[in-house]
């Protein structure tokens, strides 16, 4: 009875957070701290910090992974699943409804869409520069990122992405030294055999889906692979998934640039994780069923990784070889995102000097004035209308 009560409480609280947590991953972590650490006292300060560190260490939406982790600590694997559903479902539902209505709206010739294209360049550039500062601080990692950029611009393909990641891991293993001798311990209540299964499944899908995609050409395998791989390669928050998704779907003409950016703007206006943008994209392409499949596919890597790593977190962060390989992978991901930022995002948005001027204004607003992303989106839409008269 107590267990069922815990599960119900997890669902109620996570759903409330899913309805009210605006502002992106950093803001979400603040809401979680206020609710789970200060108010409910489900987790102590140190354990929360450890969990946040693990979520930042892994690819995927950090705030969602922290929510899953807290659910696991409170109610086991089912608690993690319920916590995820509560936090994610409200924004998924809103975006599926919005995408369904988009079929009746013609946004193709709207001048504000050009403004949103420029907003996409600015927000993603800001996010990727932040990643580069943290993940490529030395010349070796900058060179790995440059290698990834060159390979993906010259040989753009799904297999190139996977190959770059594997090569970067091997290079990092042999090239880097980690002098951090800090050893810490944290306990998470989850079965290790189940965690091993989750990690094996994560890597199996990451490797096999692109291969099956190339061999079969099956639409749904391609659809699931695109979302799954995008969710597997993102560090640094939901904004960074934008270039990967645009490269996957706009470049293949599965969705128009205008519809893509209209959905991105809508995602900025709803609470919850930014990865729910996948629900909008999937619905535009394949109706509400496609929206659900896309949501599951993009969040599945995060779910598998957090469940897989929780009981092994101490070993991973204190294991020298693992850390060195991950340093190389992180640097390669920066390069992958810079390549995707250039094309298709920047090449489809910056055509004239006035486009660059608007981008510069918006970048200053975001990077130096520290205005919220939704303000940048609104300003970009208005700016797009204004520059259409110039």
Q: Terminal Cα separation, in Å?
A: 67 Å
- Tell me, what's the shape? globular
Low-confidence stretches: none
Gyration radius from CA atoms, angstroms: 20 Å
What would you call the structural class? mainly alpha
Q: Let me know the number of strands.
A: 0
**With helices defined by DSSP (H or I, 4 residues minimum), what is the helix count?**
16
Instruction: Please tell me the overall pLDDT.
Output: 85
Can you write the helix and strand succession as a string? HHHHHHHHHHHHHHHH
| Percentage of residues assigned to helices | over 70%
- How many discrete domains? 1
Biggest beta sheet attributes? none
Characteristic key phrases:
single chain; 390 residues; mainly alpha; 16 helices; 79% helix
């Amino acid at each position: 009875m107590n267990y069922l009560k815990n599960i119900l409480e997890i669902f109620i609280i996570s759903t409330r957070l899913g309805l009210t947590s605006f502002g992106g991953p950093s803001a979400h972590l603040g809401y979680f701290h206020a609710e789970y650490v200060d108010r409910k006292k489900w987790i102590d300060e140190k354990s929360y910090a450890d969990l946040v560190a693990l979520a930042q260490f892994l690819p995927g939406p950090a705030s969602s992974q922290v929510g899953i982790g807290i659910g696991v600590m409170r109610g086991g694997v089912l608690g993690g699943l319920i916590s995820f559903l509560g936090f994610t479902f409200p924004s998924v539902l809103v975006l599926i409804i919005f995408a369904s209505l988009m079929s009746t709206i013609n946004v193709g010739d709207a001048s504000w869409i050009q403004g949103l294209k420029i907003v996409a360049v600015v927000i993603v550039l800001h996010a990727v520069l932040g990643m580069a500062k943290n993940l490529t601080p030395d010349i070796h990692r900058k060179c790995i990122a440059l290698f990834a950029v060159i390979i993906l611009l010259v040989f753009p393909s799904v297999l190139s992405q996977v190959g770059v990641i594997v090569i970067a891991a091997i290079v990092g293993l042999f090239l880097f030294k980690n002098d951090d001798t800090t050893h810490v311990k944290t306990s998470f209540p989850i079965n290790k055999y189940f965690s091993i299964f989750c990690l094996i499944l994560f890597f199996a899908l990451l490797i096999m889906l692109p291969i099956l995609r190339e061999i079969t050409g099956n639409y749904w395998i391609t659809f699931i692979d695109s979302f799954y791989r995008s969710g597997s390669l993102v560090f640094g928050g939901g904004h960074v998934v934008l270039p990967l998704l645009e490269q996957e779907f706009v470049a293949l003409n599965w969705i128009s640039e205008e519809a893509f950016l209209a959905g991105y703007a809508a995602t900025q206006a709803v609470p919850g994780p930014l990865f729910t943008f996948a629900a909008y994209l999937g619905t535009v392409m394949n109706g509400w069923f496609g929206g659900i499949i896309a949501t599951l596919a993009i969040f599945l890597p995060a779910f598998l990784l957090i469940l897989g790593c929780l009981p092994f977190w101490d070993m991973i962060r204190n294991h020298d070889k693992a850390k060195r390989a991950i340093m190389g992978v992180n640097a390669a991901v920066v390069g992958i995102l810079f390549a995707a930022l250039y094309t298709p995002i920047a090449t489809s948005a910056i055509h004239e000097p006035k486009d660059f001027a608007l981008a510069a204004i918006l970048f200053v607003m975001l990077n130096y004035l520290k205005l919220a992303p939704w303000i940048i989106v609104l300003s970009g839409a208005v700016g797009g209308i204004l520059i259409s008269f110039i």
